[in-house]
Design brief:
The protein is mainly alpha-helical. It has one domain. About 60% of the residues lie in helices and about 0% in strands. The chain has six helices and no strands. The termini are far apart.
Length: about 190
């Protein structure tokens, strides 16, 4: 069977809708998590569960984006890979994800499948999720990858909405960095 080659309409649909969605929810879930956690520190159990759910959302969408950014070949027949979206003459170098380059994304890579996406004995209890993940660090590191990747993409795939979202995400990342530097968030 020949290798799957996505059509231009499929690529545009995937990037403008689905890639956009993953970036959007990564940022929104993280923002909501911090908003709830710091505005309602002594909240009821149901609110704490909502805060933990935002943590799960962040890690799941980070996992999806990380898998995309680190794929050279399609794991499944119709998986999207970075090379599908590059301008002619551009190359995407698979980022090295380790404790030095992207320590928080390394944790996502190593832990998200076991602790979040699969029923396993290695799961972290739900009430410990928010302290066991550095969500700000995850978003800051993911933004670095997004910022390196999107300029290499064909203009047909980079919608105005995505450009605006990346601009808002840049502001959010700068706030996260300032909050981490001041000790407001861990």
């Amino acid at each position: 069977m020949p290798a799957y080659v996505p059509t231009e309409p499929e690529k545009i649909e995937l990037f403008t809708r689905h890639f956009y969605y993953e970036v959007q929810i990564l940022a929104e879930a993280t923002a909501l998590h911090y908003s709830l956690e710091y505005s309602l520190p002594n909240s009821a159990p149901a609110t704490k569960r909502a805060i933990n759910n935002m943590c799960l959302e962040t890690t799941m969408h980070a996992r999806v984006l990380l898998q995309f950014f680190t794929s050279q070949r399609r794991s499944w027949d119709k998986d999207a890979i970075p090379s599908d979206f590059l301008k002619v003459g551009e190359a995407w170098t698979i980022p090295t994800i380790n404790e030095v380059t992207y320590p928080n994304l390394k944790k996502v890579k190593d832990r998200a499948s076991k602790e979040v996406a699969h029923l396993t004995y290695e799961r972290v209890p739900a009430d410990q999720l928010q302290t066991s993940w550095d969500l700000a660090g995850i978003v800051i590191e993911m933004f670095d990858l997004i910022n390196k990747f999107v300029p290499k993409c064909k203009e047909d795939y980079v919608s105005n909405e995505l450009k605006q979202l990346i601009g808002h995400l840049a502001d959010f990342v700068n706030k996260l960095k300032a909050d981490k530097a001041s000790g407001r968030i861990p």
